[in-house]
Design a protein that fits this description.
The complex is a heterodimer of chains A (89) and B (202).
Chain A (H helix, E strand, L loop, with lengths): L1 H49 L5 H26 L8
Chain B lengths: L2 H49 L2 H27 L1 H11 L22 H4 L2 H10 L3 H5 L12 H6 L46
The chains are: A mainly alpha (89), B mainly alpha (202).
Chain lengths: 89, 202
C-alpha cells in the first residue's frame, strides 16, 4: 500500500508536470510558426503580384527591336548621304 | 477500492486530459501552418512561372541595345573620325569623352578637339538648336544662339508693334454709337436698286 501511495505521488508531482511542460513547449513552438508562415504567404503573394509587369518585357523587347531597326535604317541612310571621314574610306 | 487506487485513476485521467488538450491544440496549429505553406507555395509557384521568361527577354533586349550601340559608335567614328567623334561627344555631353567608346578602347587616349574649332558655324548652330544649347555651355567663347528664357521676346521684336516697347499710355480704343465724337454718314446706296446686276450663268 505504501508503494502504491508513493506511485501516486510520483505520478501527480513528477510525471504529470513533466508531461504538461513538454506538451506546452510543443504547442507554443507550433503556434509561433503560424504568424511566420502567414507572413511568408503574404510576401509570396505580393511578390507574385509585383511580377505582373514582367509580361510587359515582351512589349519592351518588341519596341527595342523596332527602335534599333529604325536606328539601323537611319544610320544606313546617313552612311549613304554623308561622306566618310578622311582615312576612313 | 482503496483510496490509493482512486488517486491513481484520477492522476492517470489528468495526464490523459492534458495529452488530449495539448495534442489537439498542436494539431490545430499544424493545420494552420500547412494551410499557410500551401498559400506560400502557390505564391512562389506564380513567381517562378512569371519570372521564367525574364532572363531570355532581358538577354534579347541587351543584344538589341548592344547592336544599336555598335551601330551608332561605328557610324560616328566612320563619318567623323575617332578624334572628331570624341570632340563631338564631349561637346554635346561635357565629360563624356573620358569614358570613351565601348568598341574603340583607344578612344580614351584621344586628345578630343574643341568642336567649335572643327565644325562650321552652321553645324554648330544646328546642334545648339537641337540640344537646348549644351554646346554653348561647352563653348563659352560664343554666345548662346537660342535663348530659351528670352526666346518669346526675341521673336516679338521682329514685328512692328508699339506694345513691345512698353509705353506708358496706349491710344484709346475708338468710341462707337450715337454719342461717339466721330459720326460717320450713312451710305446712300443702302436700300437703293443695284447699280450693277450679278452675272447670270447660261
Amino acid at each position: 500500500m505504501t508503494l502504491w501511495w508513493i506511485g501516486d505521488i510520483v505520478l501527480l508531482l513528477v510525471i504529470l508536470p513533466v508531461v504538461v511542460y513538454l506538451l506546452r513547449g510543443v504547442l507554443e513552438a507550433a503556434r509561433s510558426i503560424v504568424p511566420s508562415v502567414r507572413a511568408i504567404s503574404t510576401v509570396a503573394a505580393a511578390g507574385s503580384k509585383d511580377l505582373d509587369a514582367a509580361a510587359l518585357l515582351l512589349t519592351t523587347r518588341d519596341q527595342v527591336e523596332q527602335t534599333v531597326s529604325g536606328v539601323a535604317n537611319y544610320g544606313g541612310s546617313l552612311d549613304v548621304i554623308v561622306d566618310d571621314a578622311e582615312g576612313q574610306s | 477500492m482503496p483510496a490509493a487506487g482512486v488517486v491513481m485513476i484520477i492522476a492517470v485521467l489528468g495526464i490523459v486530459l492534458a495529452l488530449v488538450y495539448y495534442l489537439v491544440s498542436t494539431i490545430v496549429a499544424l493545420r494552420q501552418i500547412a494551410d499557410g505553406l500551401d498559400e506560400a507555395i502557390a505564391g512562389v509557384g506564380e513567381i517562378v512561372e512569371k519570372s521564367a521568361p525574364v532572363n531570355e527577354v532581358v538577354t534579347a533586349i541587351n543584344e538589341q541595345l548592344d547592336a544599336g550601340v555598335d551601330l551608332l559608335e561605328g557610324l560616328l567614328v566612320k563619318k567623323a573620325g575617332l578624334s572628331d567623334a570624341m570632340g563631338l561627344i564631349d561637346s554635346v555631353y561635357p565629360g563624356a569623352a573620358a569614358a570613351g567608346l565601348r568598341n574603340f578602347p583607344e578612344s580614351t587616349s584621344v586628345d578630343a578637339p574643341r568642336i567649335g574649332e572643327v565644325y562650321t558655324r552652321g553645324t554648330l548652330t544646328l546642334a545648339r538648336l537641337g540640344r537646348e544649347a549644351p554646346i554653348a555651355a561647352a563653348s563659352p567663347a560664343d554666345q548662346v544662339l537660342r535663348n530659351v528664357e528670352g526666346g518669346s521676346l526675341a521673336a516679338r521684336l521682329l514685328y512692328p508693334n508699339v506694345r513691345q516697347t512698353s509705353p506708358e499710355n496706349l491710344p484709346n480704343s475708338p468710341v462707337i454709337g450715337t454719342d461717339a465724337p466721330v459720326q460717320y454718314e450713312q451710305r446712300d446706296d443702302i436700300g437703293a436698286p443695284r447699280s450693277r446686276l450679278p452675272v447670270r450663268r447660261t
